[in-house]
Design a protein that fits this description.
The protein is α/β, with parallel strands linked by helices. Strands 2-1-3-4-5 form a 5-stranded parallel sheet, with helices on both faces.
């Protein structure tokens, strides 16, 4: 019971943080979405990839982009280091763009893939959080993510999903429709799913930035520590 109460408290805090940001955006037409800087894009992938290295692209929003973190502290470089510790030589390309919705991700997917030095061995997809933040129709989010996975399959590129959960303030009907997107699509395309990107980080102030939405450097290490084994396993298949 204590554990359940603790988790509920974390999600209430999450919902409150998202609501404050959502209201700030709604009340200020000129304000950019949270995490509005552009992360290093896939042009970085034009650099030569070592012959024995696997090419991994992390394709998402600010949670992938390394929002407000120093160089080397974002998800891509930390994941690359974690893979190395596990004996996997990989170049992890940061294709995260802060503020991206699933529709914006879909729109730039071809550009990202075509700009790489070669076909990636894996694309890790993490989009949808900004859709939820803005209250966009989960049906549209599902359609966009479906199209992203379909394009990766068409190109013969292995994929993996990291999921997001709707904040409680979005309501149970919305949450039910949104939360089902990731497991449904993972099953449809037979790709690995890490169900909630912020697992074991959300609600812990020591692991989050002041906005309560994005992980700090220590939080990214926790996330990557969870995701890296799944990425390593996917690369070995």
């Amino acid at each position: 019971m204590k554990r359940e109460c603790s988790l509920a408290g974390k999600f209430r805090q999450y919902g409150a943080s998202l609501l404050l940001v959502h209201l700030a955006i709604a009340c200020s037409p000129s304000a950019p979405p949270p995490g509005n800087e552009t992360a290093p894009n896939a042009a970085a992938g034009n650099a030569a990839v070592a012959a024995d290295a696997r090419l991994v692209v992390v394709f998402g929003d600010s949670l992938y982009a390394g929002y407000s973190l120093a160089d080397g502290e974002g998800f891509a470089p930390v994941l690359q280091a974690d893979l190395k510790v596990r004996g996997v030589a990989a170049q992890v390309v940061n294709a995260g763009v802060s503020g991206d919705t699933s529709a914006e991700g879909l729109a730039r997917l071809g550009f990202v893939l075509d700009g790489l030095a070669r076909k990636p061995d894996l694309v890790v997809v993490g989009l949808g959080g900004n859709d939820m933040l803005r209250g966009l129709d989960p049906a549209a989010t599902r359609s966009n993510l479906d199209a992203i996975l379909a394009e990766l399959k068409k190109r013969g590129i292995p994929a993996m999903l990291t999921g997001m959960l709707a904040a409680p303030n979005m309501g149970p009907e919305y949450a039910g429709r949104f939360n089902a997107i990731y497991p449904d699509l993972a099953a449809k395309y037979d790709v690995p799913l890490y169900p909630f990107f912020l697992q074991d980080v959300l609600g812990n102030r020591a692991l989050m930035l002041q906005d309560g939405i994005h992980p700090n450097a220590d939080g990214v290490k926790i996330v990557s520590g969870h995701v890296a084994p799944m990425v390593a396993e996917r690369l070995s298949n």
